[in-house]
Amino acid sequence: MRTDDYLNVIESHVKEHGDNKYAAYESAGRQFERLIKEGKIKTIDISIKALAEACMKEAGKEDITISDTRFTEAVGSTSFPNITKYIISSEMIPRFEYSADRMSPLFTEGTSSRTDVERIAGFTSMEGLEYVPEGYPTQETGFHEKYAEISLGKFNKSVSLTKEAIYNDNTGQLISNAARIGEVAGEQLEKYLIQTIEILPRSLLTSYETTSNLGCAKFDGTVVTIGNFYSTDHSALAYMGLQTNANLATGQSLDTDGLDTALRLFPNMKSDRGEYISVNPKTLLVHTNNAMTAWQLTKSIGQFDTANNAANPWGPGGMVNFNVMVSNYLVTSTTWYLGDFKKQFQLLYWERPNVVSQGGNSESAYTSDIVMKWKFQVGLGAAAVDYRYVCKNTA
Prior knowledge:
Elements: H1 3-17, H2 21-37, H3 48-58, H4 71-76, H5 80-102, E1 108-111, E2 117-121, E3 147-151, E4 153-162, H6 163-167, H7 171-198, E5 218-219, E6 222-223, H8 226-229, E7 248-250, H9 256-263, E8 283-287, H10 291-299, E9 323-327, E10 336-339, E11 345-359, H11 362-368, E12 370-384, E13 390-394
Parallel strand pairs: 1-11, 7-13, 8-9
Antiparallel strand pairs: 2-3, 4-12, 5-6, 8-10, 10-13, 11-12
Helix pairs in contact: 1-2, 1-3, 2-5, 5-7
């Protein structure tokens, strides 16, 4: 697109919105975003230089050139920040959401009303139905509302645009950097969620989370360590209902026997009242090294690891079918997990992934010739709200 093409788009929105320049500029930015999503234009084909020239011309500042000391402040007051925000986000956000969508079978997603700590009901078991003889009053259910805590945080990263990048029209480099930020952020999210499942300090939180200060599993104000979370016996933990509830199987390779052993744990799960609960394992989480084995276990009609090729109860047409999730972020390649992850792990957003723009301040403009900055940001947190729906298996 040429300068006049950009100018025509911007002016059409200014004309539509009258004196409300902010609404006009936002509307123009959303049009570019739609055109990109619909495949009518490609971000790589957008000229940052021509766009900047068009924005300056529409604002009546075409006499201010890139070499002018007033350029940074001038371009920041045009439609340039609004439009480029949508162009940059069209690269950043999808790359991030790809990882979020891929991990969706492992977490129930929700929205938080807080930015620090959210309490989610967990481990609460209500009394069942009771027989009431004629004339007798209905019995009220009595239960203690237990809760799990999910610590939330803010995560962001920025990318800058310099005068030189505009002058040389380095659109490709800018778009590549923006896409890479979204991609890396998505990879970090995936690792964060896997470490949450493993009940390990999450590297995304660096020094803010340690083994003794985990946020992966915190119930009624008490931090549960990995050794107490995945265990063959939870009877010492009062909050967890003093139940055995084994959710750990050791010496179990990812094979027919190992899968059978893991499945046998779930029918024994009990509520804090000692009543059996229903657990229906849906997902098998394995390391990338075991992707082929997991595929054979869940997709083969016959049991691939038996001499007589017996029928596979977990394959096509079998009694149970599992969704296989693969991640190279599992800390041990021979450890695998099975269960109904969505009932056990929660991912909360208090701020959805978005991109904000800012004109270069006087210091950055003077020292680094930075004209514009775009920041990718997201506010979220994840943690376990139960322990009885996923079992850990170690070879």
